[in-house]
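Chain particulars:
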Amino acid sequence: MATYNKFQQFSEDLVEGVHDFDAHTFKVYLSNAAPSASADAVKTDMAEISAGNGYTAGGATTTIATSETGGTTTVTGTEVTWTATGGSIGPFQYAVLYNDTPTSPADPLIAWFDYGSALTLLVGESLTVRFNSASPGTVFTLA
């Protein structure tokens, strides 16, 4: 299972209203660049793998939903899947969640998921990113 890690700028972006979890488009992209929780804030700060062979530049869209119970808000996201066709996808070690809608800042980062070592999908192999091992699965909670 990949490990969840939050970009530090996300906390400030959240309270400043950068993210609208009911209306914005959220995506997951793949990277092999080591993330920095403190220095990476927008998509251009953390390189994406090359597009091709079943992987589209910008990543794949996840449908985000929110719910609140007893003062705790849960944000969930649907799974995204890539299948290598016509060649390999990768290498990559990180799946990165970002908000594709805002223009200032453009494409703010939310979190990354670390697979522990670089992976490469060979032709016919797939990677499915499921938040908290479910679809929809919990991305994060705010209490």
Observations:
- The chain has one helix and ten strands.
- The chain has a mean pLDDT of 96.
- Strands lie at 3-6, 26-31, 60-62, 64-69, 72-77, 80-83, 89-99, 109-121, 126-129, 137-142.
